[in-house]
Structures are given as C-alpha cells and as structure tokens.
C-alpha cells in the first residue's frame, strides 16, 4: 500500500515545478523597480523641476496606481506631497532622462496635499 502523504507530496512537487522554472532572475526591459524611481526628480510639462518621487502606491492586485510627489517650495524645501495617477507619470527607459508629468507647475501646486494614514 502506498503512503498517501508521499503521493500528495510528490503531486505537489510536480505541480509546482513549472512555477519554479518561471521564477524571474532579473528585471525585464518593460519593467521598473520602485527603488529606481524613488527620489528621482520630476519635471512638469512646462519644463520646471517640481520635486521628486517620494513613494509609489499599489492597489490590492499589486499594480502601481499613484505616484506620491514631494513638491518643492522655495530653496528646495518640501512644500507638500501630492498624488498623481501613476499612468500619467512618464518614466523614460534611460536612467539619465527626466521623469515628467503632463501638468504645468501651477497645476501640480494646485493639487490637494496627500496625507498618509499611518
């Protein structure tokens, strides 16, 4: 008689083998790491540096939905945080190119402040 625990364990190993074979070993060309976005300068559509990416908010499915931008005021001091829909943030393929949003400096500064619910 065969041990049901051994049979179940063998079946589980066979079912998980394809998943293990598909485990990524690096970030693909069409993907971005949040780590590479954090603290990147952000420019408005009128070519003004408005601040930097502070955070990226994910939905329940793990998709990026908001970019939290630290808007700078005078002398580079933080004025406030604003939330911009992530699909409006243009992240270039090259690290040395600018991250932009399709809003003017005035439009971004007019956005309501974003607060974390800690």
TrEMBL record:
- Gene3D superfamilies according to UniProt: PRC-barrel domain (2.30.30.240)
Signal sequence coordinates: 1-21
Q: Which residues form the PRC-barrel domain?
A: 33-102
Domain of life according to the entry: Bacteria
For whether the record's keyword set contains 4Fe-4S, the answer is no
Checking SUPFAM superfamilies in the record gives: PRC-barrel domain
Alphabetically sorted, this entry's keywords are: Signal
Q: Which Pfam families does the UniProt entry name for this protein? A: PRC
Q: Check the record and name the InterPro entries matching this protein.
A: PRC-brl_dom (IPR027275), PRC_barrel-like_sf (IPR011033)
The protein's name: PRC-barrel domain protein
Q: Which classification does the entry list for the species?
A: Bacteria, Pseudomonadati, Pseudomonadota, Alphaproteobacteria, Acetobacterales
């Amino acid at each position: 008689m065969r041990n049901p625990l051994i049979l179940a364990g063998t079946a589980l190993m066979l079912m998980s083998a394809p998943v293990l074979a598909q485990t990524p070993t690096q970030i693909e060309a069409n993907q971005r790491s949040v780590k590479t976005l954090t603290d990147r300068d952000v420019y408005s559509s009128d070519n003004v540096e408005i601040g930097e990416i502070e955070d990226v908010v994910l939905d329940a499915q793990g998709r990026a939905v908001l970019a939290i931008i630290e808007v700078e005021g005078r002398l580079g001091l933080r004025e406030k945080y604003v939330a911009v829909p992530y699909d409006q943030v243009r992240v270039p393929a090259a690290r040395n190119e600018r991250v932009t949003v399709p809003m003017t400096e005035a439009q971004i500064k007019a956005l309501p402040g974003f607060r974390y619910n800690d």
